[in-house]
Amino acid sequence: MGDYSKDDFLQLIKRFGAFLTVKISNLFHTLDSRSVGAIAGLAVAIVFTWRVWRSPSEPQRRIPKRQGVMPSSSGVSTHSSANVETSGVTSSSEDSNAQNVIDEFFQPVKPTLAQVVRQRLSEGRKVTCRLLGVILEETSPEELQQQATVRSSVLEVLLEITKFCDLYLMERVLDDESEKKVLLALENAGVFTSGGLVKDKVLFCSTEIGRTSFVRQLEPDWHIDTNPEITFQLARFIKYQLHVSPTKPERTAINVFNSTTLEQFFGNV
User: Fold this and answer.
1) Closest CA to 191 of 161, 217, 233, 164
2) pLDDT tens for each residue of 55-82
3) What totals of helices (H) and strands (E) does the chain contain, helices first?
4) 127-152 burial, b for 16+ CB within 10 Å, e for fewer?
5) pTM above 0.90, yes or no
6) Structure letter (DSSP) for residue 222
7) Residue 259: beta bridge partners?
């Protein structure tokens, strides 16, 4: 109903304006200055009336504009929330990075091979070790008659032991040529260049009992062997022993340790 009255009023104003235009154009030739002023005053009065009539409707038009601002406010709120979330993610990332730095700082330092050797040998200062199956690739005296090969994987551990301990190597051989092959293989591997081992500390015998006698005479802190019978017999006389074999022996003493290889015992695999 309000829209209908507004349209009628607009049509009335337009008709009245057209009427005034015609009359003014006709009267300008006949009216004096007072008449013209009166007409101008009437026009001003009409314009003022029009503005007064429009003023009540303006708040109604402004309301939607204010409502239209709400999405912007909501957008600001959403943007603020996004900023808060982004700030939270950044803060969480910074906390995570700080925690990683702390974890790395307090992470236990990996010990060196020298430290591991000392720890595993319990500060033992004298060590005896058989050659076949431990230091050499060959596993029998018969093979030594053909060749002698130092295991490359054990070399680093062996050299570290020579720096820390008084090391004696020993083996049963069948002839003098086998002795020469063994000594040459050790020399070519650089075992004697470290300064901790000399050729005089490489002992040879012709029987297993002879190797057992060597060990008992030297009275080492540790003996390393592949023969379970020898390690079992020496358990009463030697403080610690290491039995090197892929399989665990049926009989073992409390002071005999087992490992598949010498380097594995020291964690250097």
Assistant:
1) 161
2) 554 444 454 545 444 444 444 455 555 5
3) 10, 6
4) bbbbbbbbbbebeeeeebeeebbbbe
5) no
6) E
7) 244
- Name the DSSP letter for residue 193: G
Q: Confidence class of residue 176 from pLDDT cuts 50, 70 and 90? A: very high
Residue with tokens 């004696």: 168
H or E stretch at 264: helix 262-265
Q: Residue 48, exposed/middle/buried by CB under 10 A (0-12, 13-18, 19+)?
A: exposed
**Whole-angstrom distance, CA of residue 264 vs CA of residue 191:** 19
204: which strand partners?
A: 171
Structure tokens at 199: 């050729």
According to DSSP, the residues that pair with 258 across neighbouring strands are: 243
In this structure, of 66-70, 121-125, 161-165, 224-228, the range with the lowest mean pLDDT score is 66-70
The residue type at 215: V
State residue 248 phi and psi, 5-degree precision.
-80, 135
d(CA 182, CA 184): 5
Question: At 243, is the secondary structure helix, strand, or coil?
Answer: strand
Amino acid letter, 105 = F
Stronger pLDDT, 148 or 93, i.e. the higher one: 148
Nearest to 136 by CA among 172, 173, 182: 182
Q: What is the pLDDT of residues 233-243, one digit of tens each?
A: 999 999 999 99
CA 250/CA 228 separation, integer angstroms: 9
SS3 132: strand
The answer to whether 43 and 20 have CB atoms below 8 angstroms apart is: yes
Per the CB < 8 A criterion, the answer to whether 245 and 226 are in contact is: yes
Amino acid in the structure at residue 150: V
The tokens describing 44, both together, are 């001003």
Q: Which two tokens stand for residue 168?
A: 């004696």
